[in-house]
Each structure stands twice: as C-alpha cells, then as structure tokens.
Amino acid sequence: MSPSTSPRLLAEKEVARHCTKDSCWVLLGTRVYDVTSFLRMHPGGEALLLRRSGKDVSPEMEGPPHRHSENARRWMEQYYIGELDRDSGTDEAQTVRARRKAGEQTVRETGDERTGKRVTEEDENADYNRCSPVDLNKDLVDWRKPLAWQVGHLGEKYDAWVHQPVDRPIRLFGNPLLEAGTKTSWYWVPVLWLPVVFYFSWYCYTTLGEGTTRLNLTSGISVPIHKYCFPLLFLLGWFLWSFIEYCIHRFVFHMKPPAHNYYLITIHFLLHGQHHKSPFDGSRLVFPPGLASLVVGSFYLILCRTLPEILGTSVFVGGLCGYVMYDMIHYYLHYGSPKRGSYMYGLKAYHVKHHFEHQRAGFGITSTFWDHPFNTVIPNEKY
C-alpha cells in the first residue's frame, strides 16, 4: 500500500476468512497484514503463523518467549494492507467508508489525468500491491537503478542501512548479462559440484588402494597411506571447510568497511551485504558459479602445495562436499519449513535471528560448532 493513499478498512469477518496457506492475514492491534508470502520464511515455521491467522499477534511480537527485534517489526510493515473496521455495520462506519472511497476516487482520477491510465479496484488489490514497496522517496538509494554503484556513497550510513532487511529483489548491475552472472538457481550447486565430488572420491580411493602412496615425514622416514584412510581425509576436508567458512563469514563478510572508502563498501555489498539487505532473494542465496570456482580452486591449490597431491585431493573433495552441503542447508534455512521441534527447525530460527537481530554474532549457518569456541553464540530463545 502506498504511503500516500488512505488505508483500506477491513471488517473482522473478512480478516477471519484469510486463514489458509493461500491467504493468511494477521492483526497487530488494529493494523492488518497479509503475511501469505512470508509463511515459508518465518523462522518459527508456517504452522505458527497459520494458527494465529485472523488474530492479534501483539503478545507474540512483544514476547515472551521471543521479543521481536526492530528489524522484524520494520519487515512486517511491508505486508501492511489496511485497518480493522470494528464498527463495519454501523451507519457512521458506512459514512466514513463512503467519504474515504470518494476521496480515493478523486486521487485516482487526478492520477489518471497525469498518466492517462485508470486505476481499478482489481488493480488496487493485485498481488504485487499486497506487499508495501520500499518508499523510494525516503530510502537512501534509488531502487529503480542498479545498487552496485550507489551503496559506496552511503558512507557512515551504510552499515545501518545494509542491516535493515527488505523483502524485494536487488538489481546490482544495469547490464543484463553482468546481472545474470550474479545470480544462481539453487539446484546448479549440486548439479555442478556433486559429479566432481563423486569422481574425485572414486579417484582418490582407488589410487590409495594401489598401495603406493606414502607420506614423507623426514628424509628417511615415510608412512604408507592405506585406502581406508580416505574417509578420515574426507572428514578432515569437511572440518577445514567449516572453519574456513566461519572465518570468511565473520572476518570478511561481516567486516565493517571504513565509512570513507567507497570501494570497500561496494565490495562488501557485492560479497555479502546484499544478502543481508534482501535475505530472501532466492537467486542470491548461493555463490555464483564463477565466485565458487575461484574459492574452490584456491582451496585445491593450497592443499596440493601443502600435502602430496593425492592426499591434498582427498582433503579437497571432503571440503568441496562440505561446501555443497553448506549452500543447500543455507537455502533450506531461508525457504524450508522444518517440523517444529526438529534440529533444522532450531537451526532455521537461529540463522534468521542472525539476519534480523544479531548481525554481529552467530556467524556459522550449518551449526553452532565454531560459535562456541569463538564466543559468538546467539542467546537461546524458543519460539
């Protein structure tokens, strides 16, 4: 709903009817929100919202057990569609609605004169109007233009802006081909990398099975590496990947770029800031193939220069498998709807809190394994 138009008045019976996955409305006081598109994203699961459809969620927003953050409240305003009309049957309410409708008709006709278009009630209630857009006149960037070259000018305002999430897609570049190269459908990760994982796993296992691989400890001492060591090397690679992911996420992705440095702000936004600004832009929840290839290739070269080639490859394939699982779990945590009480349910709630409330803590997404030794565990709150 545009900020310049008067809110719709919605009767209690009408709000109560919207209680399904296809149309779910909730109340916050007298304000009505259409949260249908948010059901699968909700960290508490879609069932939690469906049970409260048509009802006031103010107690749940305030807590306990979980008091929603300012970012969560700001996010909810994107789904605002109108006000509850408790006196919908009275003559006074009918008169108010008639005056409101006449006023809105005047506004629409004024707009028609300028644009040559007529706004119908059907257009007003179209799906794309259910979610309030970012106020283009008040936001710090122009969303109608590519963002990559704008964010660097935000300076000291960038850090606060990038951690105020919105539910809208981001366009980084004006060039269609360049823009397409920054997006990846989730299924391309397993399609591209799992064949590599399977091939190298088979190659390493069979090569180690020949019994000719030895690890030289000193000039005169070497240890034979049996094929049954492959699972241990594989798990070592997975372990190393989880540590690398944590360090990159915490110390690179979540660095606070200097306010005076246009280029560092831009690089930060391209690497990870965009994901925090639009955390449910599905096409940007996985690494683009080019960037992933660069990271994977660097990991492989470092290992092969540190260990004998076959051992380095065995560790590498475990790390590569860990990366694939990392990306798939990450996507599921944003769009999946795990069963309440399950491990993935808690992990989804944990990760979404990282986006909305604890941006400076809880940097791992696959588990809290590295959060404990580095003391970045998000406070435990149940939904």
Strand content: 5-15%
Q: Helix count, per DSSP?
A: 15
Structural class: alpha+beta
> What fraction, in percent, of the residue positions are helical?
40-55%
Give, in spatial order, the strands making up the sheet with the most strands: 1-5-4-3-2
Low-confidence blocks of residues = 89-93, 106-133
Over the alpha carbons, how many angstroms does the gyration radius reach?
A: 26 Å
- How would a textbook summarize the main sheet? 5 strands, mixed
Gross morphology is elongated
Distance between the termini: 29 Å
The SSE order reads: EHEEEHHHEHHHHHEEHHHHHH
InterPro entries: Cyt_B5-like_heme/steroid-bd, Cyt_B5-like_heme/steroid_sf, Cyt_B5_heme-BS, Fatty_acid_hydroxylase, Scs7
Pfam family, one: Cyt-b5
Domain Cytochrome b5 heme-binding: 7-85
Cofactor: Zn(2+); Fe cation
Write a concise keyword list for the protein shown above.
five-stranded mixed beta sheet; single chain; 383 residues; alpha+beta; 7 strands; two-stranded antiparallel sheet; elongated
If you had to describe this structure to a student in words, what would you say it looks like?
Zn(2+) 2 binds at residue 330. By secondary structure, the chain is α+β, with helices and mostly antiparallel strands. The chain is 49% helix and 7% strand. The strands form two sheets. The chain has a five-stranded mixed beta sheet with strand order 1-5-4-3-2. Residues 89-93 and 106-133 have low confidence and may be disordered.
